[in-house]
Design a protein that fits this description.
Blueprint lengths: L2 H18 L3 H11 L4 H22 L1 H9 L21 H6 L1 H4 L9 E5 L9 E5 H15 L10 E5 L8 H11 L1 E5 L5 H14 L3 E5 H13 L9 E5 L5 H11 L3 E7 L3 E6 L5 E3 L4 E7 L2 E2 L6 E7 L10 E9 L13 E8 L4 E2 L5 E2 L1 H8 L6 E10 L2 E8 L5 H15 L4 E6 L14 E3 L7
Parallel strand pairs: 3-4, 3-5, 5-6, 6-7, 17-20, 18-19
Antiparallel strand pairs: 1-2, 7-8, 8-9, 9-14, 10-11, 10-12, 12-13, 13-14, 15-16, 17-18
């Protein structure tokens, strides 16, 4: 722990919280005691908070009042987590079409914080989070981030798109005095920028690195390929994207420390996070998380679409929201870390990242990354695009080792994975850009989802 970090944590952070009238530091103390509760106590707490948010939504929003009436649901009929399945699923289109009707009448507009997603599926999403909910989310995220070896006041090497610290002078000042982010904009990850960033990190020695999974990987690979070293953070937080095994291995090898994989979304904040023992625990502090396929909960070990209910956002209740990602819940109940929260065995990526074969099989983008990217050393960057069930497009950025053998290997891998029924075309491009958010999508499918 640095002296400056201790001073910020003990003096500046509390004073800044007082200035903002933020209770997140008090919430943080509460949250960190919650992780070790017996799981039956956790479930009872979730049920009580679910009943409260359902009653509030029914009484204070036009959208849920009409929806519950249509489905013949009353707040009194929701008495268990199983009863949650009686409620219809909430989609992004539902929120877009009913934003005003979903906003609670009894919450002042001054206490509503507008949120806007990056629109990784092509269309952004706007919604509100009330101030109290935002403070709980801040505390929860801070608590889970500590699992990576970070603490309030410690500096962060942030490999991130559109850094907040560059938005205005207030955010710049906040960053200097409190958050201490040393930023590399992921929209400018060219060789000069990454060399300058490496030099900056050598000088400032951040406590941790933080960023999009693929961006962290690209920076680590760049360092390795160019013989750069000397950056030894206490930990690394990977977020916003699926972290592939080959990416994790490269990042951990280059920086000689463990990667903490964090999963969340703008709509509800943190959903799950790796503990120090490598198990990804679900966030039961502010959410209920379900895994659904064909309208029913999946069994442990099966892939299901992730559905979340926000237990804190009274300003705009988010109940049974289809995040758009797929995950596999675990059957394991115990973890050496002591956290009792359920474990997520794997995050399979976006629903829209599944390739559909002509014979009706669904293949996750993660498995394709592992099966293609790891076995094509001549390919610097790759993206799979599917618009028809019988045809794929492979977008490829050639690497130094690219040759005719690479093309033959691609054809062999494609046939092994998809058979003869799925044709393909190769498009050679100079680069494959990340989206505006800084995220990079390895696989894009425009075929209807198999999960709903």
């Amino acid at each position: 722990m640095s002296i400056r970090g201790l001073f910020i944590r003990g003096v500046i952070a509390p004073l800044w919280a007082m200035k903002e009238r933020s209770p997140y530091l008090q919430h943080l103390k509460t949250v960190e005691k919650m992780h070790h509760r017996p799981i039956d106590v956790v479930r009872k707490d979730q049920v009580q908070r679910l009943k409260s948010i359902v009653r509030h939504a029914s009484e204070q929003t036009e959208y849920y009042r009409d929806l519950f009436c249509e489905y013949n649901i009353t707040p009194n009929s929701i008495n268990s987590l199983a009863d949650l399945q009686r409620l219809p699923l909430l989609t992004k289109d539902d929120i877009r079409a009913n934003m005003a009707r979903m906003t609670a009448r009894n919450i002042s507009k001054k206490k509503l914080i507008p949120k806007k997603t990056s629109g990784s599926t092509g269309v952004s999403l706007e919604l509100f989070v009330d101030v109290d909910s935002a403070q709980w989310k801040r505390a929860v995220t801070t608590s889970f981030d500590r699992w990576a070896g970070w603490n309030i006041g410690e500096s962060v090497g942030a490999i991130w798109g559109n850094p907040e610290c560059r938005q205005n002078w207030r955010m710049y000042l906040r960053n200097i005095l409190l958050t201490r982010h040393i930023c590399l904009d992921t929209l400018e990850m060219d060789e000069p920028s990454m060399r300058d960033y490496h030099a900056t990190l050598l000088k400032k020695k951040p406590a941790i690195l933080f960023g999009h999974a693929h961006s962290l990987f690209l920076f680590a690979r760049f360092m390795e390929q160019n013989g750069l070293s000397g950056i030894r953070p206490q930990g690394i937080i990977s977020t916003c994207m699926v972290l592939h095994n080959f990416e994790r291995e490269t990042i951990e090898r280059v920086f000689s420390c463990r990667v903490t994989n964090r999963y969340g979304c703008e709509e509800v904040s943190l959903i799950a996070c790796d503990c120090p023992h490598g198990n990804m625990h679900l966030n039961c502090d502010t959410l209920i998380v379900e895994f659904i396929r064909d309208g029913k909960p999946v069994l442990p070990g099966e892939a299901g679409a992730i559905v979340v209910t926000d237990l804190t956002n009274y300003g705009m209740p988010i109940i049974r929201y289809k995040v758009g990602d797929v995950g596999v819940p675990s059957a394991r109940e115990d973890c050496p870390c002591g956290c009792t929260y359920p474990i997520l065995d794997s995050l399979e990526g976006r629903v829209a990242d599944y390739v559909v074969t002509p014979d009706g099989k669904y293949i996750s983008g993660i498995s394709l990354t592992e099966n293609f990217a790891m076995h094509l050393p001549g390919v610097k960057q790759m993206q799979i695009v599917q618009e028809r069930t019988d045809f794929l497009i492979y977008r490829i950025v050639k690497g130094e080792l690219f040759s005719e053998q690479t093309v033959l290997d691609l054809g062999r891998l494609s046939k092994e994975r998809f058979g003869d029924l799925l044709g393909y075309q190769v498009e050679y491009v100079d680069s494959i850009q990340s989206e505006d958010s800084g995220k990079y999508r390895f696989c894009i499918s425009k075929i209807p989802s198999p999960f709903f």
